[in-house]
Amino acid sequence: MGFLECIRLSFGNIRVNKLRSFLTMLGIIIGISSVITITTIGNSMKLTISNTMNDLGGANMIYGYLDASYPEDEKDWETWVYPELTEQDRISDEMIEQYKESFSDEVSHVIVSEPMESGKAVHGENYANVDMSGISAGYLDSAKIEILQGRNITEQDCQLKKHACVVSDLFVKYYFQGQEINPIGQEILIDTDSGTSFHGVIAGVYKYDAARFGGNFGSKTAEKDRSTTVFLPVSTAKQFNQSQQGYETIQIMASPGTDASDLSSRTIEYFNDLYSNNPNWNFQCQDMASELNVISQVLDVITIAIAVIAAISLLVGGIGVMNIMLVSIIERTKEIGIRKALGAKNSSIRTQFLTEAIVICLIGGTIGILIGIANGFLIAKAAVALGSQMAADYMDILTITVQPSMTAILVSVFFSMLIGILFGYYPANRAAKMSPIDALRYE
């Protein structure tokens, strides 16, 4: 008997015993669908986090900062005092320019910022609450913040300490409420919380996204009273703050295709060479690529652990396959006797029943895979619906990606066949070893 004939007979027997065959498959279906559902959720979570970070520009971002040089000898801790950060200790503009030249092929931007006070911009009866922040050129581009009108902060703005400002569309909406006016080039006056005032000129308008800027998420603050950020050149902010030159932290945007983790390591080496004569401070980095890798590894471990627990149900399904095959052999004892009396070899009998067990497991595995994939998509839809109700502001920045794990699907198909072979071999072998005389006399 050929292999195709065995498959045909297997499907014929399944059609004759539909309910029994389905109940036999049920354990396989539940086990496989559970594994696929779990792995789909785990894989989708990884891709969602990764794609969201990429869309926000964070995957290629490296955060550099000055860290105190702690004593290596435990005895020195008793007398050690945390050092004061002086202007000479800070990362200078010259250091940054030298670094950009040395890593010009791998670095697209080196970004610095200067925090400023909050305040209120008043325009007649209209007002807008604001937070002010000094930034270098490239900051908004690296953060993937969309410019709706006008332009971004430029290198020239920083060099000339211009009072150019980039404000949000929400700022424009309420600051110029009731007026049909082009905001570009308009002067604004911001009164800070400490009582000082800042005069600026609107150079650009960016799209405000509450999720990106945080702070207002989950609050019941009316849109009109929300604080949005006014960006201005970092040199202007330092002049306004009367702060020291140089920076304690920098942000480095790696060029597309650059290994951010490797660049991070070499950046630490580069700056620590510059700080080799500084006994109090050294330079350290954190890169989002490494952080994402750690998150992915944790999710992989959790997903595999839960999937293994779910896969235990496959053992129950395999026992069910063995049980039903033994019942089938008993019911078809006379058929086996007739076939053997007509010259069928033991191997043909064994192959027929083994094929039937494999077919049952493969059908159950296929149904389980389809149910598992469908469950993954349904859970994703439910998560989106729940998120839209509980965290609507954050849904716009999430790049939700639902993708089943091809590895899990292939492994599931393999295990379906393996279960059919392992739990089908004993009944098939038992059928093959039947004596044709005993089988023909069986009632």
Brief write-up:
The protein is of the alpha+beta class. Helix content is 54%, strand content 18%.
Description:
The chain has 443 residues and is an alpha+beta fold. It has 15 helices and eleven strands. Strands 3, 4, 5, 6, 7, 8 and 9 form a seven-stranded mixed β-sheet that branches. A four-stranded antiparallel β-sheet has the order 2-10-1-11. A hairpin with a 2-residue loop joins β3 and β4. The chain is elongated and about 105 Å long. The two termini are 26 Å apart. The model has no long low-confidence stretch (mean pLDDT 82).
* Rg estimate, integer Å: 34 Å
> Helical region count?
15
Order of helices and strands: HHEHEEEHEHEHEEHEHEHEHHHHHH
What distance lies between the first and last C-alpha atoms, to the nearest angstrom? Answer: 26 Å
Tell me the overall shape. Answer: elongated
Summarize model confidence as the mean pLDDT. 82
User: Could you estimate the helical fraction of the residues in percent?
Assistant: 40-55%
User: Would you report the number of β strands?
Assistant: 11
Strand content: 15-25%
Structural category:
alpha+beta
Largest sheet: 7 strands, mixed
Low-confidence residue ranges? none
